[in-house]
Amino acid sequence: MRFHSLIILFLFAHLSAVTVAAAAAWPESELLATISHERDVKSPKVIKIAKFAINEQNKRSKAKLKLVKILRCTENVYTIDNSFSLELLAKHGTRTTKKYLAHLFETKDYWFRPSTNQFELESFELAQ
């Protein structure tokens, strides 16, 4: 039994090293290959992302934006992370509604990275 455990441990360590070496040898263009598609603006994940973007912008700029409507969401699926581009309508207090563009990254959960599955707001700006 102990011998079998040692063999399994050795195989796991070997496969892990081979996987890391193969990832390092891949051309960068393959690691960054993307698939871009529109997401349903009413899906729970898109709503969660939009609320996160508004909350994060409020923390950064000490604004009081409130989400009014999600107009569009485009997801770019990368090998390592996903990015989202959102077009939002938001109000600042009782003022008029304005259109904003938000860009976020979502970190995927992999065996070599601790579980994160978090979003990071890259930019948030007033649309022109």
UniProtKB/TrEMBL annotation:
The keyword Signal belongs to this UniProt entry's keyword annotation: yes
Signal sequence annotation: 1-23
GO molecular function terms listed in the Swiss-Prot or TrEMBL record: cysteine-type endopeptidase inhibitor activity
CDD domains: CY
InterPro entries noted in UniProt: Cystatin_dom, Cystatin_sf
Keywords for the protein's UniProt record, in alphabetical order: Protease inhibitor, Signal, Thiol protease inhibitor
Domain Cystatin: 39-124
Protein name as catalogued: Cystatin domain-containing protein
